[in-house]
Amino acid sequence: MIYKTIKPFTLASQSPRRKDFFTDLGIEFTVNSAEIDETPTPDESPKTYVERISLEKAHAVSRQKRNSFVLAADTAVCLGERILGKPGNEEEAVEMLLALSGHRHIVRSGYCFVNEEEGIEVLESVSTEVYFSDFDESVARGYVATGESLDKAGAYGIQGNGSFLVKKIVGSYTNVVGLPMAEVVASMVQLGIISPAVLITQD
Predict the structure, then answer these.
(1) Catalytic residue among 20, 74, 134, 136
(2) Across residues 112-138, what is the average pLDDT?
(3) pLDDT (tens digit per residue) in 1-42
(4) In the chain, which end has fewer C-beta atoms inside a 10 angstrom radius, N or C?
(5) What confidence tier does 199 reach under pLDDT thresholds 50, 70, 90?
(6) C-alpha distances in Å from residue 144, one per residue of 95, 157, 165
(7) 200 three-class SS
(8) Lowest-pLDDT range, 94-103, 127-136, 194-203?
(9) What is the distance between the alpha carbons of residues 89 and 92, in angstroms, rounded to a whole number?
(10) Per-residue pLDDT tens for 178-188?
(11) Average pLDDT in the 122-139 region?
């Protein structure tokens, strides 16, 4: 255990990757996800979008868990101002990957802590630059055939087989996976949700 949990903490996400981040740090939490309309509004920038969705998810869950610190997040793969969501099928996944091939894109995450009972709301966002290698359609189709693309925004998973597509990143790696953990953990310590665990040794 690296951190001890001091206050009730709720993760507003069913993402196994996000859950693993907290489990690996020894942080205790419950899961209560929210279903909201995640359609971008006209002319909404990617940064505004991920922050708005995070805020709406956090408040939706916090109304049910008023005494808990609720964390909600949203991550978007952005090519310019275009948000690349999860592909609807294999052909769409191939098209997304070829659009990213040889180019830089941005992964943006918004995250929001809300505690209704204490009247606390913290909203932040983090961006990471991701540079893809230059690959052709046969490579894109080979990767899509692994099945990994279809449940990933931008049609790739950096923590899985998709790592070979990435030439370099600038910024938070965990942000590309789904949550900027350095920033999130710092916020949790500041809010008093967790504190570093103290190991007691006996002589």
Answers:
(1) 74
(2) 97
(3) 799 999 999 999 999 999 999 999 999 999 998 889 988 898
(4) C
(5) low
(6) 10, 11, 12
(7) coil
(8) 194-203
(9) 5
(10) 999 999 999 99
(11) 98
Number of H helices, E strands in the chain: 6, 9
Full set of structural domains in the chain with CATH:
3-196 (3.90.950.10)
CB atoms within 10 A of CB 166: 16
- Report the distance separating Cα 80 and Cα 104, nearest Å: 9
136 Cβ contact list (under 8 Å, min separation 6): 101
What does DSSP assign to residue 167?
E
Q: Is the dihedral of CA 164, 168, 174, 178 positive or negative?
A: negative
Asked if 74 is an active-site residue, the reply is yes
Joined tokens for residue 72: 């909600």
CA 17 to chain centre: 9
Instruction: Quote the CA–CA distance of 106 and 65 in Å, as a whole number.
Output: 33
State how far the Cα of 153 lies from the Cα of 166, in Å rounded to an integer.
15
Residue 152: name the closest of 82, 86, 73 by CA: 86
pLDDT of residue 201: 47
Residues 6+ apart with CB under 8 A from 165: 97, 100, 132, 133, 135, 143, 156
C-beta of residue 9 within 8 angstroms of C-beta of residue 20: no
